[in-house]
Amino acid sequence: MSRQSNRTADSKKMNSELFTLTYGALVTQLCKDYENDEEVNKQLDKMGYNIGVRLIEDFLARSSIGRCQDFRETADVIAKVAFKMYLGTTPSVTNWSPAGDEFSLILENNPLVDFVELPDNHNTLIYSNLLCGVLRGALEMVQMAVDVRFVQDTLRGDNVTEIRMKFIKRIEENLPAGDE
Amino acid sequence: MTDEVLFEFLHMEMVSNVYKEQQSNKMQMDNKDRAACVSVLESMGFRVGQGLIERLTRDSPSFKDELDIMKFICKDFWTKVFRRQIDNLRTNHQGTYVLQDNKFTMLTQLSNGKQYLDHAPKHLAFSCGMVRGALSNLGLDSVVTAEVAVMPSCKFQVVIQKL
């Protein structure tokens, strides 16, 4: 019995490592391709966006969560369902703005950065910026325009990793596909 | 523990991104561009394969011989990374091995037959790199290529380089 469960735990762990190592290889490659950290951050955000617009379908299919009533409910679903399902960690939701349109996700541990250290010459690199893009892309597909950014990062010496999410506006459903 | 779909989504986006970047200003990609893309993906896979095999074989005893290593790749490595075992291993006992996976995980989402066959190679480059990286850290230099006739079945050819 326990051997069986060890194997499942092992294979989940291996998936974690596969993802973490692959993400690391990606960031390394991007740093080689682009001269400065800002460009890498932008690319990570763009790639995250492309992943997010697809990931939301997987999420909705597997979680059977209905439409959220308000931004507070959205925050809870992101932290307690989505993060738990995909990254195996539940960040806490805090620092709500008085208007209720902005909050922080505090991550105690971030699987993306297992075994990662930033070298000195990459002070402005937002290593996990893919996450911001994913959240932005996913929420856009459910009609929410949001701004997502890292305000604290354990990789850069902070105690916790903090992602700030701000509600910009509701996206109207019947607009033609964007041609900006 | 991260969910397995995250790797699949990330891999898909990486493939798409590498090709988009290479193509950026040109109308058509030529074979040199395509080779460059495959090479980038393969070298990323190489690093990942090296890392994975280290973690996987931490507590294992050393391997008896080359065939032993290849069997490990077909069973343990394939299971941990691709969530299934190799269906068929053939060798000429002179350093060439053909590993057949009838339901290769990177291809199952693409198609179930011959549609999009020309897109298959770009989705295999990273995996070839992973196998080459794993073998490299086990002391074997190799050339790893993949061939697809009908998706999602695919054959990996490993040629061990003798010094």
UniProtKB/TrEMBL annotation, chain A:
Q: Give the GO biological process terms.
A: Golgi vesicle transport
Keywords of the record: Endoplasmic reticulum, ER-Golgi transport, Golgi apparatus, Lipoprotein, Palmitate, Transport
Signal peptide: which range, if any?
Answer: none
Report whether NAD shows up as a keyword of the record.
no
**One Pfam family name from the record?**
TRAPP
InterPro entries according to UniProt? Bet3, NO_sig/Golgi_transp_ligand-bd, TRAPP_component
Q: Where's it mainly located?
A: endoplasmic reticulum
Quote the cellular component terms of the Gene Ontology held in the record: endoplasmic reticulum; Golgi apparatus; TRAPP complex
Q: Which domain of life is it from?
A: Eukaryota
Q: Where in the cell is it found?
A: Endoplasmic reticulum; Golgi apparatus, cis-Golgi network
- Stated role: May play a role in vesicular transport from endoplasmic reticulum to Golgi.
Concerning its family, UniProt says: Belongs to the TRAPP small subunits family. BET3 subfamily.
Q: Tell me, how does this one assemble?
A: Homodimer.
Q: Which named protein is this?
A: Trafficking protein particle complex subunit
Q: What species does this protein belong to?
A: Cynoglossus semilaevis
The beginning of the lineage is: Eukaryota, Metazoa, Chordata, Craniata, Vertebrata
Automatic annotation (TrEMBL), chain B:
Biological processes annotated in GO: endoplasmic reticulum to Golgi vesicle-mediated transport; nervous system development
* Chief location of this protein within or outside the cell: endoplasmic reticulum
Q: Where in the cell is it found?
A: Endoplasmic reticulum; Golgi apparatus, cis-Golgi network
Q: Which GO terms describe its cellular component?
A: cis-Golgi network; endoplasmic reticulum; trans-Golgi network; TRAPP complex
Tell me the Pfam families matching this sequence: TRAPP
Write down the CDD domains for this protein, in alphabetical order. Answer: TRAPPC6A_Trs33 (cd14944)
Question: Record's InterPro entries?
Answer: NO_sig/Golgi_transp_ligand-bd (IPR024096), TRAPP_component (IPR007194), TRAPPC6/Trs33 (IPR037992)
Q: Which Gene3D superfamilies match?
A: Trafficking protein particle complex subunit 3
Give the record's keywords alphabetically.
Endoplasmic reticulum, Golgi apparatus, Neurogenesis
| Similarity section | Belongs to the TRAPP small subunits family. BET3 subfamily.
Give the protein's biological function: Component of a transport protein particle (TRAPP) complex that may function in specific stages of inter-organelle traffic. Specifically involved in the early development of neural circuitry, likely by controlling the frequency and amplitude of intracellular calcium transients implicated in the regulation of neuron differentiation and survival.
| Protein name per UniProt | Trafficking protein particle complex subunit 6B
Q: What is the species of this protein?
A: Cynoglossus semilaevis
Q: Show the taxonomic lineage.
A: Eukaryota, Metazoa, Chordata, Craniata, Vertebrata
